C-alpha cells in the first residue's frame, strides 16, 4: 500500500482531524469550567471528594491529549516503540468517540469522520513492527456487494464457485488470493465477517468495505493488524461495489514483507 494511502498525514485528513480535535477540546474545556463552578459552590464535605475526582479526570485527559498530539506529530513511515504505539492507540480509541459526537453536532458528514477512523487505524498499523506474515495467514475480507448483482453463482459459500468471467472484481480478488496464497472470504454481513475471523484465525487482515462497516469491523478485531480499504460505490451503496485492486495488492505485500513498503 502506498505510503499516502496508509497515511493519516494527508492534507485533507490533517486538517479535518486537527479542527475536530480543537473543537472537541474547547467543548471539553467548557464542560470542565461548568464543573469547576459547581465544585466550588458545593458544600465543603463534598468539595474535597469532587476535587479529587475532578483532578484525576484532568490528569487522565492530559495523558490522552498528549497521546493524540504524539500521534498527530509523529513522523510518518517510522516504526514506533510499542509502548508509544499503545499510548497513541489508547488515546485515539478513547478520544475518537468525543470527536465523533462533536462532528455530528456540527453536522460533518458521518462517512468523512468514519473514513478518518480507518485511515488513522491504517496509519497506526503502519507504525507497528509487524513480523513477516505468510500468505496463508492473511485474510482478505470483503462484503458480497462486490459481486455482480446478477451473477447466478453463490460465492459467499465458496469463493471458488466464481467462474472468473470478469463481470465483477471477485475474479480479481480470487486471482490475487491465488497469486499470494491468501485466504479470501466474501461475507454477507458483520456477524459472518467476525465468524470468519474466529474460524480462520488469520495473523493479518485486509478488510474491504464501506466506511461504516470498516469503522465497526476494525473496532471488533483487537489483536490482529487490520488494513482497511474503503470500497467504491459507483451504483450506490451495497450494489455492484468496486475496489482499487492495486491497493489490495499493496496491503497484502505490506504484510508479506513484514511491514516494509
Ligand atoms: S467474476 Fe465470478 S462472481 Fe463475478 S460475475 Fe463472474 S462468475 Fe460471478
Automatic annotation (TrEMBL):
InterPro entries assigned to the protein according to its UniProt record, in alphabetical order: DUF116
Signal peptide from the UniProt entry: none
UniProt KW Ligase keyword: no
Entry keyword Membrane: yes
One Pfam family, short name: DUF116
Keywords attached to this entry: Membrane, Transmembrane, Transmembrane helix
Transmembrane segments: 16-40, 49-72, 84-102
PANTHER family on file: NUCLEOTIDE-BINDING PROTEIN-RELATED (PTHR43801), POLYPRENYL SYNTHETASE (PTHR43801:SF1)
Name recorded for this polypeptide: DUF116 domain-containing protein
